[in-house]
Amino acid sequence: MTALTIEDVSMRFELPNGASVQALQNINLDIGTGELMSVLGPSGCGKTTLLNIVAGFLAPTEGIIKLGNEVVHGPGPERGMVFQQGALFEWMNVRKNIGFGPAMKGAPRAETEARVTELLEIVGLHDFGEKMIYELSGGMQQRVALARCLANDPEVILMDEPLGALDALTREKMQSLVLEIWKKTGTTIILITHSVEEALLLGERLLVMAPRPGRIHKEYRLPFAEMGVGADLREVKHHDDYGTTREEILSMIWDMEEEIMGRSETAA
Amino acid sequence: MTILLIYVAIFVGAFFAVKAVASHLTKRSDFTSRKTVTFGDESAVTANRAASVISVIAIFLIWGAFTGSSWSPIHAPGPFVGDATFTYTAETPDGQRDDGTVHVTVFPRDAAADAPEIEPGDGFAKDDAAKVAAWRSVLIRVDRNDELGRDEGAKVVAINGQAIAPGETVEVDSGEVTLTPKGTPNYKPEQGWQMEPVWLPPPEAVVGRVIEIMGGGYQNFTLAEHVGWSLFRVIAGFLAGALVGIPLGYAMGLSDWFRGWFDPIVEFMRPVPPLALIPLVIIWAGIGEVGKVILLFLAALWIMTIAARAGVSGVRISKIHAAYSLGASKWQILRHVIVPNSLPEIFTGARVAMGVCWGTVVAAELVAAEKGAGMMIMVASRFQLTDIVIMGIILIGVIGYAIDILMRMAENWLIPWKGRG
Ligand SMILES: Nc1ncnc2c1ncn2[C@@H]1O[C@H](COP(=O)(O)OP(=O)(O)O)[C@@H](O)[C@H]1O
Ligand SMILES: [Mg+2]
Questions:
Q1: Apex B326 CA angle, B323 and B327, nearest 5
Q2: Residue closest to A263 by CA, chosen among A50, A47, A42
Q3: Residue A27 domain flag
Q4: Which label site among A266, B125, B188, B237 has the fewest CB atoms less than 10 Å from its CB?
């Protein structure tokens, strides 16, 4: 079953100086229900733009986004978003943050509270419900962001470098948590990252994008996410295929970066 | 100048004294005893409480010492008071000379005194008596009782045996004598280092005034009423300004039409100091309460508008996006995201606005008012009641400070997340 369809999407930004940037060109993509897809690419290749279009924050210059059979216009609660950091509401405590979506829908108080308690348990923050956001560490804040998104039971979760600002150890724990939640809830997840390792671990499907114009360069189907559920991620990294795929993707991105550098040098 | 030197000396002396005591108490001078390794790290410098306490004490001590306060254990030399004498030598045109003695009683400013009773003595120059208040000088018409006076051509040619000509000055004990162009001695007792009460009254006089005015009032109103009216005007004007300014700021932050429409007005009015509006407001609304509140309203309005606008524009786009993708409507985003997110900015604005309003109300009352803290000191200054003026200034400072502290406390209590987004 297809959860999300990206049909012929192009995005062109007109700059104030009259020039324009082709951020995305003819992106076509079908994402199955319950699929975990990671997106990787050098900086500026249009990953965020693509995610913002799917989320409905940007209207593409061409093409459409379909959720199931419906074309989407604008943002909606069926597409949950997890940002890198600083998108929590620091004037609310943890419980209020997590219950924000249901509260906006006007869900009954008791029901929301029960759901929040359950989610606090899932993300491992059961003692922190009454804490304020600024009293939490960066990793805990991202757990709250994840729980807040799950509270709406979205069909698709979009994550834009959600773990980018975390230290290595916290990051690894959060990666396990993402896998756990993916398996437990069966939600479709699209995760943007600039870490090759993370893309390998958190992608049944891995999309490598290339810049100028932003486009899909290569696609992988990988077994590591499945292997990583409930397992030690460091074990997964010792798998033979993991190493070879990692090298392959690294050199691919390396070449793209070289090319960007070379091009800007000739331009200069 | 001397006072400044003394102040600097206290500053330096207290520094070394406190540091010596402190290092004696901690007795640890290895590397870790330093709070920071980087010199010039602004965040590592906090106010030294001992310095603050000594600073306040030093100011009062200097104030007391130089006004002869009974509260101060040390005093700068005061003006001379008591009896002083000097002799003058008069000479007639035909060369006759005679000495006369002048007895002067120098009395404290707030006491009355009589000139000493003296025998005129012999010779043609008779002895004289005079009185003068401390810090003042007195002309002594020595020839008035002399047998041969100015009318006979006699002139004063020496004081205490020292030759003197008109315009010249001779030091005598506890003062100096200057001969006027007409040849009359002018006695000026030593002034000492202390300030006259008219320039600066001692602290106890100011405190006494506070107590007196608290009970009896000044210019038909008690102290509490004067201060209360000033505060009332500030609060009324501020609330009016906030009530209009905050919604206006929100509108400017959210709608391009509002932004465009009000931008020129706000940007023009912002740099106009509220004090410059006083004359216009007086013309339009008179000097009554309405005029004052309008002035303070205008003082607070632009500050609050700009604060609210900045609060709205400062919201992180990812917070708005997050709220949208959690299913919030525009109205819900305004209420649950934009408004709370703007509160820290608004509170900063409110603190600034309260400070500006307090300064403006005092200035407006200086110009024209029937009551209020500013009016009190203005009227007092016309009557040279320096103690009331000083009291008023201290009171205005203390209240301004108290307002700021209260606002800060309210801020910590109401928006604890400030600066921690
Ligand atoms: N609002 C915008 N206006 C103009 N150009 C933009 C805008 N957003 C993104 N771009 C450009 O589009 C390209 C892709 O950006 P982005 O999607 O942020 O890349 P990535 O997330 O992969 O680093 C970049 O060249 C960027 O400069
Ligand atoms: Mg990006």
A1: 95
A2: A42
A3: yes
A4: A266
State pLDDT tens for residues A70-124. Answer: 888 889 888 999 988 878 999 999 999 999 999 998 889 998 999 999 999 988 8
Q: What percent of chain A has pLDDT over 70?
A: 98
Locate the chain A residue with the closest alpha carbon to B416. Answer: A91
Within-domain flag for A98: no
> What is the pLDDT at residue B36?
54
Beta strand spans in chain A (E): 2-14, 20-32, 36-40, 62-67, 70-71, 79-82, 156-160, 188-192, 205-210, 215-221
pLDDT for res A263: 67
Measuring from each residue's beta carbon to the nearest atom of ligand 1, which residues come in under 6 Å? Answer: A 13, 15, 21, 23, 41, 43-49, 214
- Ligand 1 atom 7: residue of nearest CA: A13
Number of structural domains found in chain A = 1
Residue A96 inside a domain? The answer is no
Q: Where in chain B is the domain with CATH 1.10.3720.10?
A: 204-414
On chain B, the residues whose CB falls within 8 A of the CB of A56 are 324-325
With a CB cutoff of 8 Å and minimum separation 6, the contacts of B227 are B373, B395, B399
Alpha carbon distances (Å) from A88 to B361, B374, B414 = 42, 48, 19
- Of the candidates A86, A91, A152, the beta carbon closest to that of B316 is on A86
Give the CATH fold of the B204-414 domain: MetI-like fold (1.10.3720)
CB of A51 within 8 Å of any CB in chain B? no
Q: Ligand 2 center to residue A47 CA distance, Å?
A: 6
pLDDT recorded at residue B402: 94
pLDDT lower than 50: segments of chain B:
none
CATH number (domain holding residue A40): 3.40.50.300
| Integer Cα distance of B78 and B196 in angstroms | 10
The pairing of strands A156-160 and B128-133 is unpaired
Return the pLDDT at A41. Answer: 86
Is pTM beyond 0.90 here? no
Structure-token pair, residue A72? 């989407």
CB atoms within 10 A of CB A37: 22
The pLDDT tens digits of the residues spanning B155-198 come to: 888 888 888 888 888 888 888 888 888 888 888 888 888 888 77
- For residue A201, give its domain range: 2-78+154-267
